[in-house]
Design a protein that fits this description.
- The protein is mostly helical.
- 43% of the residues lie in helices and 9% in strands.
Length: 152
């Protein structure tokens, strides 16, 4: 039992197939032309950040991503990495560490004066290790010889 079409109008499947072929052709045409433009734009955007990144030349590298202030952990893991490599005989010059402070960990990059002024300890739930209250200082920024971030 076949159905015959009395008119020569394309079927729905033929139309959808032709539309898909047309969309693919347009997509391929778009992809072929902007790639050199995107590459040129990327090269033009290379700036000081890229130059800084090229200076990370250690054979052994570590990036610590710290989105939250988990106490000493954003700073302990780089130290553990360096100590572990030193114990295996790897010279320190062959190691590179980058700590990325973002989101709630950004205050760790700010001076102590800003911590007390803007109450970062309360805002970011960062506890002072000495008093166990919301911190009014950055415990890791220039702690000084007698002030330790975490007492022994």
């Amino acid at each position: 039992m076949s159905r015959s079409h009395s008119n020569n109008a394309p079927s729905r499947r033929d139309f959808i197939g032709q539309a898909a072929i047309g969309a693919a052709a347009l997509g391929l045409a778009w992809l072929s032309s902007p790639l050199p433009a995107v590459a040129a734009e990327s090269a033009a955007l290379a700036g000081p950040a890229d130059e800084w990144f090229k200076k990370i030349t250690g054979k052994h590298r570590l990036v610590v991503d710290a989105p939250r202030p988990h106490g000493i952990f954003p700073f302990a893991w780089p130290k553990v990495f360096l100590l572990t490599n030193a114990m295996t005989g790897t010279p320190e010059k062959d190691c590179s560490v980058v700590v990325v402070l973002r989101h709630d960990a950004i205050p760790y990059a700010l001076h102590t004066d800003l911590w007390s002024k803007y109450k970062f300890g309360e805002m970011f739930k960062a506890e002072d290790p000495a008093t166990h209250a919301p911190s009014v200082r950055n415990p890791f920024w220039q702690p000084g010889p007698t002030i330790s971030a975490y007492p022994a």
